[in-house]
User: What shape does this take?
Amino acid sequence: MSSTAPQDKVVLDATHFDSKARQWDENPVFRERAEKIAAAIRASVPLASTMRALDYGSGSGLLSFPLKDELGHITLKDTSAGMLAVAEEKIAALGVGNMATRCVDLTSAPLPEERYDLIYSSMALHHIPDTDAILATFHALLNPGGWLCIADLDQEDGSFHGPEVDVHHGFDRAALAARVGQAGFAEPAFRTVFEIVKERPEGNRAYPVFLMAARRG
Ligand SMILES: C[S@@+](CC[C@H](N)C(=O)[O-])C[C@H]1O[C@@H](n2cnc3c(N)ncnc32)[C@H](O)[C@@H]1O
Assistant: This one.
């Protein structure tokens, strides 16, 4: 994936996710994936009611709602206003007092002033062209000793989104671990948390999803 998409490639930008937002939570696979990732975050990080967390590329907040009672405050950031509108409606409907949304692209916006104890991100990293830059931003946004948790696809052949879509084709765990280490995080640990099964002409195909947890030095 390059920083500027080749002309024959499709970019899944904020307009794409705006158009998916209203139906997002109806997908049982997305809901189950979020529950499994939340469980893996719980198993990897000592969550505490004193922690301030950032859910980056939060979408409608499927991953944050299961964690809200175990954290002090959660900010949902996304480039899709449509996704965040759905999240805001759920926050209001449930009367949640410790979650807020912000429509922003941290790959281009100036570094905000707030700092976090935990940053997590589910299925968003493969949409962000410059992996090293966003990892450096996450490092800068975390307090010392803070945690970074990334859930995403293991490296695949491009068939998950289709060859015409300009995204990273998942991530090789060792290569991502090296990048995370270069960004200043210690001991990235990976576990497989879910499998997304898609029907393919040759039969069903499983795409594993990992959770990586690492600590800021
Ligand atoms: C596959 S969806 C995952 C949503 C949610 N995390 C989940 O697991 O249900 C990817 C999300 O990343 C967001 N996204 C893509 N590029 C982004 C960027 N540069 N900054 C913030 N969010 C981004 C999209 O708008 C979308 O909501």
